[in-house]
Amino acid sequence: MNLSTQSNNSGGLFAFLIKYNTIFIFIALVILSACISDVFFTSINLSNLLKQVSGIGIISIGMLLVILTGGIDLSVGSLLALLAVLFAIFVNTLVLPAAILLTILIGFVIGSISGYLVTAQKVAPFIATLAIMTIARGLGFMYSKGAPVVFETDGGAFMTNFGNGSFLGIPNIAYLFLLVAIIAQVMLSYNVFGRLLIAIGSNEQAARLSGVKVDRYKFLVYAISGALVGLAAIVGASRTNLGSPNMGMGLELDAIAAVVIGGASLNGGKGSAINTLMGVLILGLIGNILNLLNVPSYPQQVIKGVIIILAVLLQRFESK
Predict the structure, then answer these.
(1) In terms of pLDDT, which residue wins out, 297 or 77?
(2) In this predicted structure, what is the pLDDT of residue 297?
């Protein structure tokens, strides 16, 4: 074998490793976790890990859709708190199906407001969703009067059992997260809507000149993101048997981190639901490892910030 052939082989291997870096990082973290702690592969720890990532995973799928169009949604954490509080109130006052549908619908409507500001009023996504973030957190404290709203009905007990229950050893809410990820992946890969989102993020002006109703699709991704936050709020409230205005603090950072770790570009036009799922699991594994090592929560935030920077730098390196 001559030197040029060796160089091509090594270059091809390196390109392969870079292309599928999310999968290799996930495998490496699983091995590292197993080596660090004997508790990692226990059913209790793995079940807790899946429960912890399911809510943020659902939100991250919505964040992915927004980021694919070149936008950003900073309101997801505060919106989660508001919708969790409202869901707890609805559970205590309405029949359960109505409480679930109304919570998701309100999430859709609030997400639509962000979409309207971004598309119709041409407000920068950062500013529009920052305003919604502040408003949602304030409304959460107003409706709850600053205190958690506890489930008090049979419907609430049913949701608590669902949120903490499992089927075949896998948490119920993990199935919900997986279902959302699969639907999103199918949409992005085989549906016109998903392909147009990627086209808009890749080159918005070209998509507009091609006749694509860009503003309509950008509006919809914020609305869908809000609806998925509503679903995640139901999951979070069901796990804890209450809705609290303090829920979701800093959750927008975790969602963005999961999407970026999954290989999506913050400039838009690149990303997949399966890779975002992997990014969510990687973020969950890192948190799980740090918890097993008894690392306090504040250093964990520092580590998450560093991970985001490294993920973005890796994307730039990959594009070069």
Answers:
(1) 77
(2) 73
In a domain, 6, yes or no: no
d(CA 122, CA 143): 30
Give the structural domain span for 220: 56-319
CA distance 201 to 232: 25
pLDDT tens column, 127-157: 999 999 999 999 999 999 989 999 988 998 9
The pLDDT value recorded for residue 26 is 84
Computed on alpha carbons and rounded to an integer, the radius of gyration of the chain in Å comes to 20
Number of domains in the chain: 1
What is the mean pLDDT of the segment spanning 12-23? 67
Question: Which structure tokens are listed for 115?
Answer: 């979409």
The pLDDT, as a whole number, for residue 14 is: 58
Query: Does residue 218 fall inside a structural domain?
Result: yes
> Residue 190: which residues within 8 A CB-CB, separation 6 or more?
none
Q: Please check whether residue 231 lies inside any domain of the structure.
A: yes
Task: Measure the CA dihedral 89/93/145/136, to 10°.
Answer: 40
Q: What angle do CA 66, 110, 201 make, to 5 degrees?
A: 15
Pairing of strands 170-171, 242-243: unpaired
Which tokens belong to 69? Answer: 């169009």
Does residue 2 belong to any structural domain of this protein? no
Residue ranges of alpha helices (H) inside the chain are 3-19, 21-36, 43-68, 76-93, 96-119, 125-144, 154-164, 172-190, 192-202, 204-209, 214-240, 251-261, 273-292, 297-319
Q: Distance of CA 154 to CAs 90, 107, 201, Å?
A: 13, 24, 45
Q: What pairing do the DSSP bridges indicate for beta strands 166-167 and 149-150?
A: unpaired
Tokens of 12: 């091809």
pLDDT of residue 2 exceeding 60: no
